Amino acid sequence: MNEKHLGKGSHAITGSFPTGSTNVPLLKGKLRLYSMRFCPYAQRAHLVLDAKKIPHDVVNIKLSDKPEWYFERNPLGKVPAIETESGACLYESLIIADYLDEKYPQRPLQSKDPMQKAKDRIQVEHFSKIPANLFKLFHGGGDDTFDAILTDLDLFEKELAVRGTRFFGGDVPGMLDYMIWPWFERIDAFKIVAPDRFVVPTDRYKKLNEWKEAMKEDDAVKITYITPEIHAEFINSIKTGNANYDILVK
């Protein structure tokens, strides 16, 4: 998972990892996930794969200098993307999450009730405004942008209160929990990067804070979890114009 990110000039080798030093075949029964270690959208795919214990390999992509061969997997050049044994590729995080949940029946993440499943998807759509406003905030957005983020968080605080459960999915995390978690993981990093502009009132989000602490104890979350300090280091490297994708490479 913490392998070096591949950029232009790396070689794509059919049936094996596209690296020059470690040519590991794609084993029978395994998927391949194309990811970027700090991408919240890619983390969605990681969480579903790990929650359902789906065998997979990971290839990290340097998004600022994408390998030429990667556009054959995903013509948009974004992560995540998954490659199946047959060579078929899927991309876009929500599409991948839905595919994995339907294809691999172990530990279903979405409700079997069509109405509840639809309501959860509505919540995911509501949440989609938060990442956009976070991006805007870090690129000069004013107080109105931050207020919009807090207002959207209010919706999720109220939703947890209405559901009366530990997680949005009930007693254990479900699809909605995993689809929104990556941004909550980064909230404490935003406080480090912009302490004067990102102050979330804790008393306003008691339920969400309890949920956040419970999510940190989930086995799937633990696998991909990155500390706020490391997230902040990566965010600051982006701001310098030289994103350090390989902070975690040993």
UniProtKB/TrEMBL annotation:
<dbReference type="GO" id="GO:0004364">
    <property type="term" value="F:glutathione transferase activity"/>
</dbReference>
<dbReference type="InterPro" id="IPR010987">
    <property type="entry name" value="Glutathione-S-Trfase_C-like"/>
</dbReference>
<feature type="domain" description="GST C-terminal">
    <location>
        <begin position="113"/>
        <end position="234"/>
    </location>
</feature>
<dbReference type="InterPro" id="IPR036282">
    <property type="entry name" value="Glutathione-S-Trfase_C_sf"/>
</dbReference>
<dbReference type="InterPro" id="IPR004045">
    <property type="entry name" value="Glutathione_S-Trfase_N"/>
</dbReference>
<dbReference type="GO" id="GO:0006749">
    <property type="term" value="P:glutathione metabolic process"/>
</dbReference>
<dbReference type="GO" id="GO:0045174">
    <property type="term" value="F:glutathione dehydrogenase (ascorbate) activity"/>
</dbReference>
<dbReference type="Pfam" id="PF13417">
    <property type="entry name" value="GST_N_3"/>
</dbReference>
<dbReference type="InterPro" id="IPR040079">
    <property type="entry name" value="Glutathione_S-Trfase"/>
</dbReference>
<dbReference type="Pfam" id="PF13410">
    <property type="entry name" value="GST_C_2"/>
</dbReference>
<comment type="similarity">
    <text>Belongs to the GST superfamily. Omega family.</text>
</comment>
<dbReference type="InterPro" id="IPR005442">
    <property type="entry name" value="GST_omega"/>
</dbReference>
<dbReference type="InterPro" id="IPR050983">
    <property type="entry name" value="GST_Omega/HSP26"/>
</dbReference>
<dbReference type="InterPro" id="IPR036249">
    <property type="entry name" value="Thioredoxin-like_sf"/>
</dbReference>
<protein>
    <submittedName>
        <fullName>Uncharacterized protein</fullName>
    </submittedName>
</protein>
<dbReference type="GO" id="GO:0005737">
    <property type="term" value="C:cytoplasm"/>
</dbReference>
<keyword id="KW-0560">Oxidoreductase</keyword>
<feature type="domain" description="GST N-terminal">
    <location>
        <begin position="29"/>
        <end position="108"/>
    </location>
</feature>
